[in-house]
Write a structure and sequence with these properties.
Blueprint: E1 12-14, E2 24-25, E3 51-55, E4 58-59, H1 71-80, E5 82-86, E6 89-90, H2 94-103, E7 110-113, H3 115-120, H4 138-141, H5 146-150, E8 161-162, E9 171-175, H6 176-181, H7 194-206, H8 235-240, E10 247-250, E11 253-256, H9 261-276, H10 289-297, E12 303-306, H11 308-321, E13 327-330, E14 342-343, E15 351-354, H12 360-373, H13 376-384, E16 391-393, E17 399-401, H14 404-408, H15 412-416, E18 423-424, H16 432-446, E19 449-450, H17 462-483, H18 491-516, E20 520-522, E21 529-533
Helix pairs in contact: 17-18
Length: 534
């Protein structure tokens, strides 16, 4: 496989911080003029040939997905003369499934890839090159900035469509009803420390917060990944102890989390203390995000990292089995040296790709669908569904949500598969107070960014692609064993040395060389801006 010099092609990348689950384009689509895009029969298709298209979207939050006869699928089938088949796949197994499908030559017509897979497969003919045709799809081509389109693509080619993400969508959410029962109160944002976080975790584990007289709650549940991603439920703790979200810029150079020995000891030492005292879920070694989400929904834990739409929906779900449940946003705890942060994402590093090996007619039909999706009409329908089914337009021009919205979830594909980047908070039926709630939620999150300062550059390192996965797995095994008390805390010293010897130093050298070849590389800040320029 050739080694690309993609870093030299980077331009400006714009990141948006807004709702990952609640947004409308910032072009005037609000309840007052929603009837412009009210449901109506799909127009007669312009396409003579009937095609079957397979799309493979993620499924998160307990396996959410559309029913097979979903109204949006039916609408798209009529509009584009297609049979749209959605291969919903659990987010935690998505990458493994793609590898199996690629090995068997049965990849779907359109799917998503993470940065490493996107770079590794660029020479294999797996992805359609959009560069020659993108300008023919005016709405799609303008859905993202030029820099976001170019990110991680080799010069002269565009192999992927940026996946729209929110830079600071997630923060801790906590059972406020448990805090009140235990007499702890809601933590104050400006003074909430890691010691206070410990007290909450201890109380949730030991003092029967659900008042059922049974010892059946954890203080905290985390996944076995222990990375800076939101789904691990430990990113805020890493930030508190000064540990990098993969890579940190220190004195002009990028430093790996695995080379930060004092910070890693502090982070692992905190989790080790929780585990030893019975405050951390004893089975965290076997758990992914779906498992800790189930723990939260079942009332076994009271702290979860998620976004504001999830806060509201999870609160409603919990109230069915645990009346009186109340969830509130929890600020990230302040560490011993005053550091804190919420997990922060970079726009455009993940891609939706069109299969480069399918017939051109299918590729063109997918692009036509996406081009419509990027219009005001397409965005509105893919976000809100249809009048009469999912919402009603009132006489004053406002809209009211109908019950089917909560089961149909019209927004799922727009959230998890494709959406354009100009976003604002709200659905067609959102009340002003709901819009304000989400706006303030993201505003608070953005005050405490916890960003990977390499910002996607790491996958351009050949050494990273060769060594990183194996090194990460070996280091993680040591991390888990330290937390469980099977190894002493000082084992971090040996693990860090082994990481450096095994390829970590080579990775660090290459990533810094790539970084240096960019005249500017401003990491995502509380404004949500990320810039690359040649």
């Amino acid at each position: 496989m050739r080694r690309t010099t993609i870093a030299a092609t980077f331009l400006t990348v714009a990141m948006s911080w807004a709702a990952i689950a609640l947004w409308l384009p910032g072009c005037g689509i609000m309840p007052g003029n929603a009837d412009r895009y009210a449901a109506r029969p799909a127009p007669k298709p312009q396409y003579a040939e009937h095609l079957t298209l397979t799309l493979m979207p993620f499924s998160w939050e307990g396996g959410l997905r559309w029913r097979e006869d979903h109204p949006t699928i039916q609408y798209l089938n009529r509009k584009f003369n297609i049979d749209l088949q959605l291969q919903w796949t659990d987010g935690e197994s998505y990458k493994d499934k793609l590898n199996v499908m690629a090995a068997s030559g049965k990849l779907p017509d359109m799917f998503q890839v993470e940065p490493d897979m996107f770079v590794n497969w660029q020479d294999d003919g797996v992805f359609m090159d959009l560069q020659p045709v993108l300008d023919s799809y005016s709405h799609l081509s303008q859905a993202f900035s030029v820099g976001t389109w170019r990110l991680l693509n080799p010069e002269g080619a565009l192999f992927g469509i940026p996946v729209n993400v929110v830079s600071n969508s997630d923060s801790y959410q906590i059972r406020a009803d448990w805090l009140e029962k235990l007499g702890l109160g809601i933590p104050e944002e400006d003074s909430f420390t890691i010691d206070q976080f410990y007290t909450i975790v201890q109380s949730f584990a030991l003092y029967d917060p659900d008042s059922d007289g049974i010892s059946n709650t954890y203080g905290l549940s985390v996944t076995n990944l222990l990375t800076g991603e939101a789904q691990t439920n430990s990113a805020q703790l890493r930030a508190a102890f000064g540990l990098a979200n993969e890579w940190a810029l220190q004195d002009g150079r990028l430093v790996s989390q695995y080379a930060q020995v004092p910070e890693m000891k502090a982070f692992l030492g905190f989790l080790r203390k929780l585990y030893a005292e019975g405050l951390l879920d004893r089975n965290f070694r076997e758990k992914g995000f779906t498992n800790i989400y189930d723990d939260f929904q079942s009332g076994r834990t009271g702290i979860l990292t998620s976004h504001p739409d999830s806060l509201k929906s999870d609160e409603l779900l919990l109230q069915r089995s645990h009346p009186g449940t109340r969830l509130v946003q929890l600020p990230p705890p302040i560490g011993p040296n005053g550091q804190r942060g919420n997990p922060t994402n970079l726009q455009g590093v993940n891609k939706s790709v069109i299969n480069g090996r399918i017939e051109p007619a299918k590729q063109e039909r997918i692009l036509a669908l996406l081009d419509w999706w990027a219009t005001d009409e397409g965005t509105f329908i893919m976000r809100n569904g249809f009048e009469g089914l999912h919402f009603e337009i009132n006489e004053d021009g406002s809209a009211t949500k109908k019950p089917l919205t909560d089961s149909d979830l019209p927004r799922l594909l727009d959230n998890w598969f494709f959406s354009r980047s100009d976003i604002a908070v709200g659905y067609v039926y959102s009340l002003p107070e709901e819009i304000e709630f989400n706006r303030r939620y993201y505003e608070r999150n953005a005050k405490y960014p916890y960003v990977n300062d390499a910002g996607g550059l790491e996958v351009l390192s050949l050494a990273y692609r060769w060594y990183y996965k194996k090194l990460e797995e070996a280091y993680r095994d040591v991390q888990i064993r330290i937390i469980r008390g099977e190894l002493p805390l000082d084992s971090v010293d040996d693990a860090a040395a082994a990481w450096r010897r095994g390829g970590g130093d080579r990775i660090t050298m290459e990533i810094n060389e790539i970084y240096a070849r960019n005249k500017t590389h401003k990491a995502a800040s509380n404004t949500g801006a990320e810039e690359y320029s040649k």
